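Hi U.,

Before I forget, here's the chain from the pilot set. I'm dumping it here mostly so it's searchable later in email.
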Amino acid sequence: MLANQITSPKPAKTRRKTLRNKHFPANINKLSAHVALFRALPGSQLPTIQSAIEHLVHHYEPFPISTGDPFLMAHGVGLEVHVEPAKHIYRTLKEEWNGFLSRQDQSFKAHYTIQNKVESSIAQKSFDEVRSGPHRFEGSTGAVTGLSLYLYDRGYWRLKQTYLFGPQDVNVEKPVVEKNDSEAWPSLGASKSPKP
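Structure:
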C-alpha cells in the first residue's frame, strides 16, 4: 500500500485515532486513519512501483495537510482532507501506472476514513455525532513528509518501505506490522503482495 507518512500536532493525531477507534468496527480496524492514493496495486509490479516512487519523492518537499468537514459515505464516515500536492502526485503516478491500475484506483478523493463497512443507520448516527455532537471533530493540520509502500499479507498491512520527500536517500526497507495504535499515519495508497 502506498502510504503517506504524516506528522501533525499530537492532539490532532490523537483525536483522529480516537474517532477511528470509536467508530470503526474493531475486528477489521488494522490501520490508523490514513489517506490512500492507491488501494490495489499489483504486487507483480513492485519493482516498477518502487522505481516510480523513488524518482518522484526527490522532486517534492514536505507540504501542509488539513482536515475539513466530516461526510457520510455509503457504509461509514470520512473526513475531508485538503492536500493539493497529493492530487498532483496521484495524477503523476496514475499516468505512469495506468496500464495496471484497478478500477478502484482510477480516481482519488483525499480523506480519512473514520468508519466503514457498517449499516447505513449506524453510519448516519456516527456522522451526526462527528459533525455536531458534543465530541464533534473540529479539524486539524499537519505536514506530509513522504510516501510509504505497504504490502497486504494474510490480513495485515505490512510496511515495506518509506520514501521521504527531498533529495536525501532514505529508502530503507522496514518490514513491520502497522497496528492501529501506531503514532505514524499510513496514508497515500495500496499494493497487494503477489500470490505465492
